[in-house]
Design brief:
CATH topology of the largest domain: ABC transporter transmembrane region fold
CATH architecture of the largest domain: Up-down Bundle
Structural class: alpha/beta
Helix content: 55-70%
Largest sheet: 6 strands, mixed
Strand order of the largest sheet: 6-7-8-3-9-10
Distance between the termini: 69 Å
Number of helices: 22
Radius of gyration: 36 Å
Number of strands: 10
Bound molecules: adenosine-5'-triphosphate
CATH class of the largest domain: Mainly Alpha
Number of domains: 2
CATH superfamily of the largest domain: ABC transporter type 1, transmembrane domain
Length: 583
C-alpha cells in the first residue's frame, strides 16, 4: 500500500475532522488575503487625505479583529486536525502489535527486537506526521497559494503577477531534486536509529552479562559509534531539508526584484498606485508560507514513505504459524506423533528425524537425551511453534493444524527452559494463565510448585513486584513461579521443558510428588517432561531417549535400565554424582 492510499483511506474515514479543519482553514485564508488589500486601501486613502481619524481608527480595529479571528481559527483547526491524525498512529500501532503477537518463533528469529520497537515508535511517528502535519501544511499552503495568486492576478495587477511567477518553475525543479535525496537520507536515518535502538535494547537486557564480562567499555564504544552514525544520517537528512530554504529565498528575491522593476516602471508611468504596489509586495511576502509549506510537506511525505516502506513488510509478513484451524475444542483421544520430521530453516540437519510416539490421555512421557537431541523442538511441534515438513501430529483424532491456535493454547500449559516474569506482582504473574483465579487458587498452585514458602518470605508476600521493575528471583524461584502458573491453568496437556533444572533435588522431588497427586486427581492430564536430570522422569509411564532427532530408546525406567544403553549409563552416572554431592 502506498502512503497516498493509506493516508487517503484514513482521511476518508475521518472526513468530518478533515472537512471541518478545511472550512476553518478557508476562513484563515480569506482573512489573511483580506489584510493586504485593506492595508493598501488605507495607504491610498491616507495619501489622498481621504481618511478621517474616525475612519482610520475603525479600519485599525477591523485589522485587529481580523488578526484575532486568524489566531482563533488557526489554533482550532490545528487542534481538530491533530486530534484526528494521532488516531492513525494508534491504528497502525495496534495493527503492528496484533501482527507481532500472532507471529511465531521463526519470525522473531529473523527480526531484531530493537528494530521492531523502532518501527512501532519512530517509523509510525513519521507516517502519522504525514497524515497530520503534512496534511495541515499542505492544505494551508495550497489554499493560501491559490487565494494569494488569485488576488495578485485578478485583484491587483496581472502583469506584476506574471512577472513575479517567472522564477517559480525553477524552484519546483529544485524541490523535486531535494525531495529525492531526502527520501534516501530519511530511509538511512530510520535504519540507523533502529540499529541504535537494537543495541540499547540488547545491552540493557543483557546488562548483567555485559558487566560480568567487563564489556562496558566495548558496549559504550559500540553505542557511541552507532549513535554517531544515527546522528550523521539524521544530520544528512536535515541538511537536505535545509536546502529548501535557500531555494525559497532565491525564488522570492528574484520575484521581488522583477516585481519592483516592473512595479516601479508602472508607478512611474501612473499605471499603478503606490498602495497597489505595497499590497502586491505584501502578497508576495504571503507566498513565503506556501513555499516553505511545500518544502516541509515534501520532506514529511518522504519521511512517511520511508517509514511505511519499512513498516509494510512487517504488517504483511506471513504468519510463521498459520491459524487456519476451525475446531475450538480438543477432541477426546490420544496425542499421536507419526514419523515427524522437522528441520529449522537454514539448519544443515534434521532436528527431528522420524519421531513417532503415542500418548493416551493421562499418560506422562519423559523426554530425555543429550543436549541438542531435539527435546525442545518436539515440544515446539506440539505447541505449533514449528510445523513438521513430514509426518503428522494428531490430538483427539484431529490433526493439530485443524484446531484453532487459541483452543490449542488454552488446552496446553508450557513451562519453557527460560521462564519469563512480567513487571507485576508474583500473584499476578502466577494468575496470568487464569486471570480470574482467586488468591486461594493462586496459593494452592504455588504450593504445588513448592514456591509458596519462598513467596511468604518476600517483603510483600504474593504482592511483591517482580520482573524488570521488581525484585529479582533466583532461576529456581522463577522456574517454580512458571510451574505454578502452568498448574493454575488447569489445561489438559502439561509440557515441562527442563523446567526443574534450576531447583535442587529435594525441591524437584517435592514438585514431582505434587504432580503425581495432581495426576491422581485429574486422570485426564497428559504431561510431557523433557529433562536432563533422569530423576525427573523415573516415574513417567513412557520414557523416550532422543539422539540427533531420532528415538534411540524407549520404555519404562526399569526397562531402559535393562536395555543398558544411553539411559542406563546416564542413570548410573547421575546416581554416582548425586551420592558424591550428598557425601
Ligand atoms: N531456532 C533454531 N534454528 C536453527 N536450529 C535450531 C534452532 N533451535 C534449535 N536448533 C537446533 O536443533 C537441534 C535440536 O535442538 P533442541 O533445542 O530441540 O535440543 P534439546 O534436546 O532441547 O537441547 P537441550 O537439551 O540443550 O535443550 C539442535 O541441533 C539445535 O542446534
Amino acid at each position: 500500500m502506498s502512503l497516498a492510499s493509506l493516508v487517503g483511506g484514513f482521511v476518508l474515514r475521518h472526513w468530518k475532522a478533515y472537512a471541518s479543519s478545511a472550512v476553518m482553514l478557508v476562513g484563515v485564508a480569506v482573512c489573511s488575503v483580506w489584510v493586504p488589500r485593506k492595508v493598501g486601501a488605507m495607504i491610498d486613502g491616507l495619501a489622498a487625505h481621504r481618511l478621517s481619524n474616525h475612519d482610520l481608527t475603525i479600519q485599525i480595529m477591523q485589522l485587529l479583529a481580523l488578526g484575532v479571528a486568524i489566531y482563533v481559527l488557526r489554533v482550532s483547526w490545528r487542534i481538530r486536525l491533530y486530534g484526528a491524525a494521532y488516531r492513525l498512529g494508534v491504528e497502525l500501532r495496534t495493527r503492528l502489535y496484533a501482527r507481532l503477537s500472532n507471529q511465531g518463533p521463526a519470525f522473531y528469529q529473523k527480526q531484531r527486537t530493537g528494530d521492531l520497537m523502532a518501527l512501532g515508535t519512530n517509523d509510525i511517528d513519521a507516517i502519522e506526521m504525514a497524515a497530520g502535519e503534512a496534511m495541515l501544511a499542505g492544505f494551508d499552503g495550497t489554499l493560501t497559494l491559490v487565494m494569494v495568486l488569485g488576488v495578485m492576478l485578478l485583484g491587483v495587477d496581472w502583469r506584476l503577477a506574471c512577472i513575479a511567477l517567472l522564477p517559480f518553475p525553477l524552484m519546483g525543479l529544485a524541490f523535486w531534486y531535494i525531495s529525492r535525496h531526502i527520501h534516501t537520507a530519511e530511509t538511512d536515518s530510520l535504519k540507523r536509529f533502529s540499529a541504535l535502538n537494537d543495541h540499547v535494547q540488547e545491552s540493557l537486557s543483557g546488562v548483567r552479562t555485559v558487566r560480568a564480562l567487563g564489556l562496558e567499555k566495548r558496549s559504550a564504544e559500540q553505542f557511541s559509534a552507532l549513535a554517531g552514525q544515527a546522528a550523521n544520517a539524521s544530520f544528512n537528512a536535515h541538511k537536505w531539508e535545509a536546502a529548501y530554504e535557500p531555494a525559497v529565498g532565491l525564488t522570492l528575491a528574484a520575484a521581488s526584484t522583477l516585481t519592483l522593476g516592473l512595479g516601479g516602471y508602472l508607478v512611474w508611468n501612473n499605471q499603478l498606485t503606490i498602495g497597489a504596489l505595497t499590497s502586491f509586495t505584501m502578497y508576495l511576502g504571503q507566498l513565503i508560507w506556501p513555499m516553505f509549506a511545500a518544502g516541509w510537506v515534501l520532506s514529511l511525505i518522504e519521511r512517511g514513505r520511508a517509514g511505511l516502506a519499512r513498516l509494510q513488510p512487517m504488517l504483511d509478513a506471513p504468519l510463521s504459524v498459520e491459524d487456519e484451524g476451525h475446531l475450538d475444542r480438543i477432541g477426546d483421544g490420544p496425542l499421536v506423533l507419526r514419523d515427524v520430521h522437522f528441520q529449522y530453516s537454514g539448519a544443515e540437519r534434521l532436528a527431528l528425524d522420524g519421531v513417532s510416539v503415542a500418548l493416551r490421555p493421562g499418560m506422562t512421557l519423559g523426554l530425555v537425551g543429550p543436549t541438542g537431541a531435539g527435546k525442545s523442538t518436539l515440544l515446539r511441534v506440539l505447541l505449533r511453534q514449528a510445523t513438521p515438513q513430514q509426518g503428522s501430529v494428531t490430538w483427539g483424532g484431529h490433526p493439530l493444524a485443524s484446531y484453532r491456535l487459541d483452543a490449542l493454547r488454552a488446552a496446553t500449559s508450557w513451562v519453557p527452559q527460560e521462564s519469563f516474569l512480567f513487571s507485576a506482582s508474583i500473584a499476578e504473574n502466577i494468575a496470568l494463565a487464569r486471570p480470574g483465579a482467586t488468591r486461594a487458587e493462586i496459593e494452592h498452585a504455588a504450593g504445588m510448585a513448592a514456591i509458596h514458602d519462598d513467596i511468604l518470605r518476600f517483603p510483600q508476600g504474593y504482592d511483591t513486584p517482580v520482573g524488570e521493575k521488581g525484585i529479582t528471583l533466583s532461576g529456581g524461584q522463577r522456574q517454580r513461579v512458571a510451574i505454578a502458573r502452568s498448574l493454575l491453568a488447569e489445561s489438559s496437556l502439561l509440557l515441562l521443558d527442563d523446567a526443574l533444572s534450576a531447583v535442587d533435588t529435594g525441591t524437584e522431588t517435592r514438585i514431582l510428588e505434587h504432580l503425581a497427586e495432581l495426576r491422581a486427581a485429574r486422570p485426564e492430564l497428559t504431561a510431557i517432561i523433557a529433562s536432563h536430570r533422569l530423576s525427573a522422569v523415573v516415574n513417567a509411564d513412557l520414557i523416550v531417549v532422543l539422539k540427533d532427532g531420532r528415538i534411540v530408546e524407549s520404555g519404562g525406567h526399569e526397562e531402559l535400565l535393562r536395555l543398558d544403553g544411553w539411559y542406563a549409563s546416564q542413570w548410573r552416572y547421575q546416581q554416582l554424582e548425586a551420592s558424591l554431592d550428598a557425601s
